[in-house]
Amino acid sequence: MASRNKQLSRADQVRARRKIEPAHRKPIPQAPRSTTREAESASRVISRHTYPGMAREARSKAKPQRRIYLPTDTPGSEIRLPAMPEVKLGWRLLSAFLVILLGFGIYMLNFSDSFEISTLNLSGAQRIPAEEILDKLELSGKPIISVIPSEIEAQILAEFPDIKSAVVRVELPANLTISIQERIPAITWIIDGEATTWVDDEGFTFPIRGEATIPLKVMASGDPPKPLGYVDPASEPAEKAETPILPTPSVDPQFVASVLKLRSYIPAGTALLYDPENGLGWTDAQGWQVYLGTDVSQIDVKLAEYQQIVTALLERNLQPSLISVEYIHAPYYRLE
Predict the structure, then answer these.
(1) What are phi and psi of 35, to 5 degrees?
(2) d(C-alpha 333, C-alpha 314), whole Å
(3) Beta strand pairing status for 320-324 and 289-293?
(4) Of 9, 66, 141, 309, most Cβ neighbours within 10 A?
(5) pTM over 0.90
(6) Please, what are the domains in the chain?
(7) How far is it, in rounded angstroms, from Cα 145 to Cα 174?
(8) What are phi and psi of 324, to 5 degrees?
(9) Is there a contact between 178 and 122 (Cβ–Cβ < 8 Å)?
(10) DSSP code, position 86
């Protein structure tokens, strides 16, 4: 065998070896055949070709439809109605609709005649008409949404001293209801024979209007005494005039209490007298003027002293024009 191989040439040996052993060849690397142009053309082909089934599926996902079935009298059978598309409103669309609706509502509340005040429902009033309150506060034609109850209540008390309290209620479309409590006059203040003002039991003065049964009249030669620390509202600074100034008692409450207390000591129908110098008094049965001062806390002692003075004057046949027991330890009388 070895001698045979030696007889073969080298080329024959190589051929014989190739027949016996399989060829082990390395693959030759090759560059990819696909190019950018082929990729672009492929993408265009993909975007251009769509199947009918895929289009229907996309449309169904975009606009889902709601199927409606109605039962029939036959068991197991139903009637299918045409499918209705389900409309879903987004939050942005809903918010825009609400903004438009609110804007229209605000416009109507401000400029529509249906929401302007034209009448007033007034309760609790006996002497004050509703028209006077509307004109005084300039409420006619005012939009109902611009009315602030607390401010209207303060204006009523500031403009009408004869109103003790006020409650304002506002209701749509244009209902304005005011419930008031009027002050009850207790004293009619008369100066030089002319009734000038009414005074209630708290010391508030207010103008005379209408008719009222006044239990007591005071014939005065001047204004009643003011309370301690009283400040006239007309003297307030101009910068404070924008805010309503609530009324305060303009008559000393103790003086009012003294007047009301004297009512049970003087004869019925007798008018009280007031003099800024001598205080409260009246004209007795003899025609004499009797003054007790402004403090009647010791009225029993003053009345007893007054009776002793009257007895002494009658015994002496004197006709005084004035008897004063303002000061218990220093009473005096004045002859005509």
Answers:
(1) -120, 170
(2) 13
(3) parallel
(4) 309
(5) no
(6) 96-182 (3.10.20.310), 183-335 (3.40.50)
(7) 9
(8) -120, 125
(9) yes
(10) P
